[in-house]
Amino acid sequence: MKATERAEILVQALPYIRKYAGKIVVVKYGGNAMTSESLKQQVMEDIVLLRLIGVNVVLVHGGGPEINALMDKLGKKPEFVDGLRVTDQETIDIVQMVLAGKINKSLVGLLETKGGRAVGLSGLDDKLIQAKCKDPRLGLVGEITKINPECVLDLLAKSYIPVISTIAGGENGETFNINGDTAAAYIAGALHAERLIMMTDIAGILRDPKDPSTLIPEITVPETQALKDSGVITGGMIPKADCCIKAITEGVNKVIIMDGRVPHSILIELLTDEGAGTMFLA
Fold first, then answer.
1. May I ask the CATH architecture of the domain 23-281?
2. How deeply is 147 buried, as exposed, middle or buried, from its count of CB atoms within 10 A (0-12, 13-18, 19+)?
3. CA 181 to CA 28: how far, in whole Å?
4. Model pLDDT for residues 19-48, shown as the tens digit of each residue
5. Cβ neighbours of residue 262 under 8 Å, at least 6 residues apart?
6. For labelling, which of 35, 80, 191, 208 has a CA lying 20 to 30 Å from the CA of 54?
7. Where are the domains of the chain?
């Protein structure tokens, strides 16, 4: 590529840089984008670049595959009730070890090596995420009751990238496991984010799951229920869509579900005309 072509690409991004400069963008990161080392490097590069051009990025991460791997190594067999994982004290200890420890600090380290300034947090820090028991049968699985975003806002004001693992505290000192998508929706709402980006392992909402060309680029909140009723939104995409709606109702301007397997998909979505995935609008 010629130098003039590179310059033209940067100029074309200028309106988008102006649009998002000073705004908050929350990225929910997990799935295949997290397990692939090359994709992980590119996601971190995208986030650091956005921070350097003035976008306030908050990274919320999961880590289900690594939790499962450690449980298997320790001989801990998972239990399920109505398809949901039962989280006893031993399991929540493993969750906290993997999410708030290994994964969180490795992402902070990666962001630092890419030139960013990052600080790792869990929902326990400064009572960031407060929760109560979702269902006694599930044990220490939490339902969010409150987000206290002050510590995140303080870090953003000092140009740090907050990296948040999704465990929460209870009023009696309990530690709860929180669904990552749900936590990202609540956090984005509490921050009044301009955009919530939900990185998944599919292109977005497809009318035909076997045909990527049937991607639905935009969905309004009222249209979402109709798509669920018709079976277009089904299976594991239903809770993701519900989290998107929750974020919109909590005050997020726009929410997008997009394919985290596409290299530099965050930059494609925010800084180009092309965009990526399915956008949820009020």
1. 3-Layer(aba) Sandwich (3.40)
2. buried
3. 7
4. 999 999 999 998 656 777 888 899 999 999
5. 268, 276
6. 35
7. 23-281
b/e for 239-252, b at 16 or more Cβ within 10 A? ebbbbbbbbbebeb
Q: Cα–Cα distances in Å, from 99 out to 30, 42, 52, 132?
A: 11, 21, 26, 19
Q: Which of 267, 279, 276, 274 is nearest to 55 (CA)?
A: 267
Q: Distance from CA of residue 28 to its chain's centroid?
A: 1
Total-model pTM: 0.92
Helices 37-52 and 104-113: crossing angle in degrees, nearest 10, is: 60
Q: How far apart are CA 101 and CA 85, in angstroms?
A: 21
CB atoms within 10 A of CB 206: 18
Q: What is the pLDDT of residues 222-261, one digit of tens each?
A: 898 889 888 888 887 888 899 999 999 988 999 999 888 8
Quickly tell me which residue has 């965050």 as its tokens.
266
Residues 6+ apart with CB under 8 A from 163: 59, 61, 104, 107, 108, 111, 118, 119, 120, 121
